[in-house]
């Protein structure tokens, strides 16, 4: 192996696969909560420019982590033959629902204040937040026996929650019903892009290769493994499954907005009573 391959091999170091609600999971969750608490406490210290810099920093961090992840998944070393082979794993192509913040962090961080940036911020504060929180609460099968991948996935999904809280607590996202409409527009565009990739995979013969390519887990050619949605896909026509997916995530994201609205009114009432 050359020096580069030795680095990738080192990053493939193994550990016992962490368990949901195990020590590794709990430590990562507690660290996320501590960072969120600090953001809320010092929310008045964050200027709009600071928020943009944080988005850019985290976006670049996620890109670097994703590149390393792709290399790790593609690298294979046979110690018996002392040979190295590279085989790209298409199932890990970086355009899943939880992959989108990697791109949107950067784009939003480079945007000037306008409607487009408001839509991106709204998406990060609702859809991205709920997706990241879902994984942080119940990682399920995201944990593997590879140390780096486990660290990467916890940094990745916790950053989605942290940015969502940052945007809400700094009033970078307005507490208005239009926020969910802006967020939903970005989500639907992302779903359409995922569908195009899934259909292109079929058109160009990817399904026949035997590899899995299921962006957003909404491909009609592969099984969805997400709770509830997997059952819907199995027992209903594809269009019902797709609409359930879209409307389900919109409903969950709207719930995030309603919770933020409730917090706003409660804090307002508390402040009024203390005066």
Structure explained in plain terms:
By secondary structure, the protein is mainly alpha-helical. The chain is built from 10 helices and 2 strands; from the N terminus they run H-H-H-E-E-H-H-H-H-H-H-H. It has helices at about 5-10, 25-40, 50-75, 100-110, 115-125, 125-135, 145-170, 180-205, 230-235, 240-275, and strands at about 75-80, 85. Strands 1-2 form a two-stranded antiparallel ribbon. The longest helix has about 35 residues, at about 240-275. It is globular. The mean pLDDT is about 95.
Biggest sheet overview: 2 strands, antiparallel
- Order of strands in the sheet with most strands: 1-2
Distance between the termini: 69 Å
Shape: globular
Segments where pLDDT lies below 50 for 5+ residues? none
Helix amount: 55-70%
Mean pLDDT across the residues is 96
Q: Could you give the order of the helices and strands? A: HHHEEHHHHHHH
How large a portion of the residues is in β-strands, by DSSP E?
under 5%
